[in-house]
Write a structure and sequence with these properties.
There is one protein chain. This protein is of the alpha+beta class and 141 residues long. The protein has a single domain (10-140), classed as Nucleoside Triphosphate Pyrophosphohydrolase (Alpha-Beta Complex). The chain contains three helices and seven strands. Strands 1, 2, 3, 4, 5, 6 and 7 form a seven-stranded mixed sheet that branches.
């Protein structure tokens, strides 16, 4: 059983991936475009059986963006219905360390954007709250 005994909940994890902007003035966030849904979101995905949520989040970031990252603050859990089933996605802040994006079937594009532009590009309003959570976490350190 997963999710504290709830077998119907889909467990997933992801990161709000960020890097310092090339100009040194601020940060940029990585958003992924999924052609299957034609949406822009933070990198995330379903956990494998018995996989630790943070390990799954880092795996998904690498699979979807091609970037390794250093995890930071936990940003919370987003809950919603996906295809009629409850889904819980745990998120962390993560600073990109190295890597390069290669398009694939799941993610065909990524965009590195300043936080206001990232907030505007995100398809789901619930994902916009994670931009604010990241900015709050970075200012607290």
């Amino acid at each position: 059983m997963r999710g504290g005994g709830r077998t119907d909940v889909v467990l997933a994890a992801g990161c709000v991936l960020w890097r310092r902007s090339a100009s040194g003035d601020g940060i940029e966030l990585a958003l992924v475009h999924r052609p299957k849904y034609d949406d822009w979101s933070h990198p995330k995905g379903k956990l494998k059986r018995a996989e630790d949520a943070l390990a799954g989040a880092l795996r998904e970031v690498l699979e979807e963006t091609g970037h390794h990252c250093a995890p930071g603050a936990r940003l919370g859990t987003v809950r919603y219905l996906a295809q009629g089933r409850p889904k819980e996605v745990s998120y962390w802040a993560a600073e990109a360390t190295d890597g390069a994006f290669i398009p694939n079937d799941e993610v065909d594009r990524i965009a590195w954007l300043a936080p206001p532009a990232a907030r505007d590009r995100l398809t789901q309003p619930r994902d916009r709250l994670l931009v604010d959570a990241l900015l709050n976490a970075l200012h607290a350190t």
